[in-house]
Amino acid sequence: MGGVGRRARAESTGRAAPLAGPIGDGWFYDPRMWKLPALVSVVLALGAMPEASGQDGPKIEVLDALSPLATSQQLTARLLTPLMQDKIARFRAASGVELKEQSLGAGREKVRVWVPDHPPGERLGILVFMWPAEGIEPPPDWWRMLREQRLVYVAPMETGNTENVFDRRVPLALHAYEYARSRFDIDEARVFIGGFSGGSRVAQRVALAYPDVFRGVMLVGGSDPIGTAGFTPPEASLMSLFQTRSRIVYATGDRDLPNRAKDERTRRSFEALCVAGVVQVSQPRLDHWVPDGRGLRKALVALQSPSLAEATEGACRQGLAQRVEQELAGVESLVAQGRAEDARARLVAIDAMYGGLAAPRSVELARRLEGPVTP
User: Fold this and answer.
1) Strands of 22-23's sheet in order across
2) Which string of DSSP letters, residue by residue, matches 320-370?
3) CB of 278 within 8 A of CB of 270?
4) CA distance 273 to 324
5) What is the pLDDT of residue 57?
6) Inter-axis angle of helices 82-95 and 340-354, to 10 degrees?
7) CA pseudo-torsion sign 170, 265, 243, 221
8) I need a surface site. Which of 65, 71, 199, 249 has the fewest CB within 10 A?
């Protein structure tokens, strides 16, 4: 399997970096190509292995249908903050501009699909997996573990870090899920998404926005705290599902120190938002790469373990609601003092951190501060 050794496109940073310096989550820049030094030993090992054959490796299939979960209306409502949603809605009403229903077309996009052997009538789970660049393949022993756990693997193609998150990467994750859901008898309680590096961040974004679809997320070598980089809580009922039912499994390599530090910051942000199902699965002697089969099995078992929200979580969510109310009251106070600019800045920060948990009051305050939107 020489897939990792092919050309890999890295996460765009907008500028070149020194040869010896890391960019973002562990990718390095070279004027001639993007390289992954942490994966050199893995690439060499995989290059010596034979290509997987037949049912031992994924097949490429065409997406012949689009997911209703990926419409512009759904993406806007689930991924954007309430203030941004309101701005878009008001602009559309004032201008008459309509959003395109889907950003992609059926019959054009492809996915890599692997289906475990299973007896007729057995319900399967799904693992949608997002990669940071095209041409990367998982370790060969993944298929044995996915077969053991009865999980369909589906990885959308052309969803690397250089692709647009909202126009391609998130929609294709949802279309990949729809492809598997529409073809197999699926156990809805075992529908998961995962990713590596920049793909892990996409997986986190999708899991947060669609907790009614994905019961858990496997984060490998990439995550961002809530309130940063556009990661914001969805509306209250969806966030409640994420807090109480979703499993968030960190499977970053023990030697991937930069991303381990980022994972810790993300875990603290989940804790502050009363997310109960956070688990870290140790991956010994692993750098910036995905786990081997045994490491994958540990992560998959953790994903399928129920998230048990303890009694204290109710108190946590009550305290969270009180904090949000206090923050909004602070904005009200600034408005009353005539400090409109300070009120706007504070409201934007609240919108980013608490998202749907602060709506609709946050939106009402924003309208008072901003006035009408003109096309």
Assistant:
1) 22-23, 27-29, 34-35
2) HHHHHHHHHHHHHHHHHTT-HHHHHHHHHHHHHHHGGGGTTHHHHHHHHHH
3) yes
4) 11
5) 86
6) 110
7) positive
8) 65
Please state, in angstroms and rounded to a whole number, the distance separating the CA atoms of residues 178 and 269. 30
Question: Which distant-in-sequence residues (6+ apart) come within 8 Å of 366 by Cβ?
Answer: 83, 86, 344, 347, 351
* For residue 118, pLDDT beyond 60: yes
To 10 degrees, what angle do helices 361-370 and 311-336 make? 20
Q: E-assigned strands of 197-321?
A: 216-220, 247-250, 278-280
H helix or E strand, kind and range, residue 237:
helix 236-244
Q: What is the pLDDT of residues 296-347, one digit of tens each?
A: 999 999 999 987 666 567 899 999 999 999 999 999 999 999 999 999 999 9
Angle value at C-alpha 256, between 34 and 196, nearest 5 degrees: 60
Predicted pLDDT at 11: 36
pLDDT of residue 231: 95
Asked whether the whole model's pTM tops 0.70, one would answer: yes
For residue 310, the model assigns a pLDDT of 62
Distances (CA, A) of 335 to 273, 323, 342: 27, 19, 8
The residues near 320 (Cβ < 8 Å, ≥ 6 apart) are 272, 273, 274, 357
Determine the distance from the C-alpha atom of residue 64 to the mean position of all C-alpha atoms in its chain, rounded to a whole number: 24
Q: Is the pLDDT of residue 52 over 90?
A: no
Coil, helix or strand for 11? Answer: coil
Cα dihedral value 354, 25, 60, 174, nearest 10: 0
Within 8 A by CB and 6+ apart from 148, the residues are 297
What is the DSSP pairing of strand 110-114 with strand 22-23?
unpaired
> Which amino acid type is present at position 118?
H
What's the N-to-C CA distance of the chain in angstroms? 53
pLDDT at 373: 57
For residue 83, how many other CB atoms are within 10 A of its CB? 23
Read off the tokens for 265.
Answer: 């910051």
**CA–CA distances in Å: residue 36 to residues 15, 29, 287:** 18, 9, 11
